[in-house]
User: What shape does this take?
Amino acid sequence: MTENSPNIQQRPKTAAVGDVAIELVGINKHFGPVHANKDIDLKIRRGTVHGIVGENGAGKTTLMSILYGFYTADSGQILVDGKPVKINDSSHALELGIGMVHQHFMLVDNFTVLENVILGAEDSPLLKTSLAKARSVLAQLATDYELEVDPDALIEDLSVGGQQRVEILKALYRGAQTLILDEPTGVLTPSEADHLFKVLETLRAQGKTIILITHKLREIMAITDDVSVMRQGAMVKTLITKNTDPAELAELMVGRRVLLRVEKGEANPGDVLLSVRDLEVKDDMGVLRVKGVDIDVRAGEIVGIAGVAGNGQSDLLEAVTGMRQASAGKIQIKGKDLRFSGDAGGALVRKLGLAHVPEDRQEAGLVIEFEQWENAILGYQDDDKYGQGVFLSIAAARAEANEHIKKYDIRPANNRLKTANFSGGNQQKIVLAREMSSNPDVLVIGQPTRGVDIGAIEFIHNQIIAMRDAGKAVLLVSVELDEIRSLSDRILVMFDGHIVGEADPATATESELGLLMAGIEDQSATKPENNKERTK
Amino acid sequence: MEFFNSSIFMLDSSIRLTVPLLLACLAGLYSERAGIFDIGLEGKMLAGAFAAATVAALSGSALYGLMAGIGVSIIMSLIHGVASITFRGNQIISGVAINFLAAGLTTLLGQTWFRQGGRTPQLSGDARFTGIELPYAAELADVPIIGGIYSELLSGHNILVYVAFAAVPITYYVLFHTRFGLRLRASGENPKAVDTAGVNVNFMRFKAVIITGVLCGIAGAYLSTAQSAGFGNNMTAGKGFIALAALIFAKWMPIRALFATLLFGFLDALQIRLQGVELPMIGEVPVQLIQALPYVLTVILLAGFIGKAVGPKAGGIPYVKER
Assistant: This one.
């Protein structure tokens, strides 16, 4: 960058594609004892999509939050167009043309799209003119970048993809030249993700610079020009995307070789251990979420349920695991009916031999304020081996906890550490260790690797396969299609409360599954013979 | 005609009893819409009432009294703000502390300064807000219906009454049609969205809390220098809490707040009216039972009638930027 134009507005005209738009030099950031960013150097070229990959806790989001002014760095320098700048808050970043789309959307749910777009960028004390202006700018942006949203819709009524478009529109409305996206596809369906990538390509073609934070290597390969890898707070390497491959990136991320594919042998299905018939489940609001579902899971097989989040999978899981009363239908665990009143279901399913790894480990799987050893026996605390009557044998519980730590490689290996202080992956291992160690016959797992690092994912997947090979019946629900495809022996696709299709993971393609997940009937997927109802 | 006249009289006193509730309710609305729960409306009103009566008594000017009431109430608000915004303390506890502080201090200072058992000296003349005759009120007084409504119901109130009712549309406009209102509401719903949009959340919340102080101060001044002629011990008598109930009943909307407080004001007027009256079939109802009516209704309304009232999502949670 040779011209240091003081006027931000003129920058796009004077700058050329390929120049360094943003440069970070020696960035350091501590959170208490945690050194989140260590001496980070990074150059972002204008008009490119620059990927930043790394495991959870590698410091990607922290680094970008520093660039966006949400945090301030302890030391280091930020250069925008070659000029050193101090970014103390988000409004400063916005003035410099840097916008960010956060992983958790920064939107006010009960405001309209327009209100959200102008928030903080109002032109005058009265809203009328700003709203009118935003309306016309939004219409223009919608046609330029395929970012259509109804400007008068409430955020809470929009789909997740729609909310994300609003976030992008917010940044563009503020004149962002550089757009930071933090894990943008984590919450999207495959088709929504494709749409997002199309939008990003258009933005790049119009000269915008895009920084894409992700841990999905497929996305990095698909859309980025450059890619930087971070590990444990440090910048490992920046590469040209077309000169690298996923295996190399994974190795850089984790620091060792990683198998990206799950190795598993043939399944040997046995007797039906979990059987669901004509199941109907209502949610807290009384809305019917599961509308007549039949599922059989046999010993020694993994049945995966694919679907866009919110199509009844969560409610199905809750009913099967005794967390929620089914409104109709029958659930059998090893031939015994699941019948309970009140909140006795959780204990009952355990007694029948079903273990449950909940979708949301922090909400349903762990008491986050407990120490690890307490969580290690949670739900099994009444077992005889942990003491008699009202007494709890702390020694036995701690021994069990240490067993889990050793077998499941939970780090740090300290059963007295508060659960909240473990990383997401290790918290998940705490739950998995507890449930798998109870030696169940049926294992129900929701989102086994949500928010879990690549290294831990490999481990967790292998554990699930090992359970299957030990003759357990495994029911798996995940919004990660890749995960469903690589683990399952049979895939059921759920849409709008129905099982709309069954697919063989060996032959079904992603687009076939995507169509089913979107509720569009596809010829190639076989119809499960025991499903009476089908939706279009 | 007899019934009409007594109805007008009832409504007239409803309006006068509604004013402090309405002001306090709107005060709470600003604060809670910005995400700061304020259980200390009562205390702020009480402190404002005491300050207004004291200064009015000493200066002989109701206006100076009003200014003092607002000033003291703002100071109380800022204490709440510093405790719960700057130092991220628990907003409920801070609010309760404000209530205790006000109840204790007003009694202590009142007794120390005036030695009348906590009362301030009787106010008269310019030291009180007196009624304003609207134009042609006297001429229209004898016109049937219209005269009753205009001359009795609408005319003859003091300036603070008109201020209170004018505050409703103003609040509505500010909240929903201005930049300030948009940011204020967003601060109470999702402060992170406000922060990432480049607006200082805590400063926003302080502004809201100061407006709360102003309105509570006016409400207090109304009680001691307009409705009564001086400050009496604990003269707010739970009005701050009823205002809070009305706020929830109104689901944090200004126009609904008007009707909610009017309802409570009407109940209060009814309660006064029913005292000593022989009811057909029932006979004379004990005065304590009648006095309890507004409070009983508060409980019933809050428990059963309004359904689920969902307040501002970020209400009660201090905004923490750094993790």
